[in-house]
Amino acid sequence: MLSYFGRLLRIPQPCVAAAGRFVFDAPTATNIVARRLLSVTPSLRMTDGEQQIYNKLSQELQPTKLTVSDASGGCGSMYVVEIEAECFRGLTRVKQTKMVNNLLKEEIKDMHGMRVLCSVPSEQ
Amino acid sequence: KEKVVGRINGVKIAELVDEVNKKCAEANGVSVQQAASASQSKLEQDLNTRLKDLIESAPVMLFIKGTAAQPRCGFSKQIIGLMNEHNIKYGYFDILKDEEVRQGLKEYSDWPTYPQLYIDGELVGGLDIVKEMISSGELMDMVSKESIAA
Questions:
Q1: Contact B31/B92 with Cβ under 8 angstroms?
Q2: Measuring CA to CA, which residue among B148, B77, B141 is closest to residue B114?
Q3: Which GO terms describe its cellular component (chain A) (predicted)?
């Protein structure tokens, strides 16, 4: 337990400053809870690489569902893209994947690999 | 009638699994490597012809890293496994042995990765697409009866 709090106290200032509201003097009840949340909540924000890909695909394909994950632990060498979009309807899987590949030509140059999983929204 | 095709002495699970996979690959997969390297040519015109011939050299054609018996990449290994599991007969080409085909085919088919599966001369896709098509039943529809091993 003590070592857990010790780890909390060592959260670097800049990361905390970004959150804004927390004061880091003595560990009061409030900011211990806050720091615990910061340290155990998985990052909900995308990496820069993920964000770039996400933005481009969102803009160009208007997907109904889209997730972009860096599968290389943040290194940007392997991505997994799951995308559901109306514009894929009627196209072969190869054509769907090529649409995504073509939009990400520049980004792909820096990657070791990319997996693209395309789907079509279920008809309502 | 049953026939002994191999033997592993002792309880060596890993070796047994490898040996079984090798035998399946040998039974179902035919390398088209030799025919390809015999007619090497550096002209781009000939490269496209060469690639087209390679793609059409078997009704079910796989371009993989390594051989069917010894794939050198996890994705290639999985795709071979799927072919064997569904008793599909295929030709295969080891792109690690031919840099010209390795790079040329990516451009020719506008597909950046390996493994690549072609059926009747048409690109079906890579591992992810093949997995999806197997679970939807589409792949088995595309494969003619002649390509299913007895």
A1: yes
A2: B77
A3: mitochondrial matrix
A108 and B111 within 8 Å at the Cβ level: the answer is: no
- Measuring CA to CA, which residue among A51, A59, A70 is closest to residue A100? A59
Residues paired with residue B60 on neighbouring β-strands, in sequence order: B119
For the record, the structure tokens of A23 come out as: 């004061």
- Structural domain boundaries of chain A? 4-119
Expressed in angstroms, the distance from the first to the final Cα of chain A is: 52
Q: What is the pLDDT of residues B56-85, one digit of tens each?
A: 999 999 999 999 999 999 999 999 999 999
> Model confidence at B44, in pLDDT bands (50, 70, 90)?
low
Query: Residue B124: its chain A contacts at CB < 8 A?
Result: 94
Q: Which tokens in the block code for residue A42?
A: 């998985």
User: Within 10 Å of residue B103's Cβ, how many Cβ atoms?
Assistant: 12
**Residue A75 in contact with partner chain B when CB distance is under 8 A:** no
pTM: 0.72
Fold annotation for A4-119: GMP Synthetase; Chain A, domain 3 (3.30.300)
Q: Which segment, A45-54, A58-67, B34-43, is predicted with the most confidence on average?
A: A58-67
At residue A26 the predicted structure's pLDDT band, cuts being 50, 70 and 90, is low
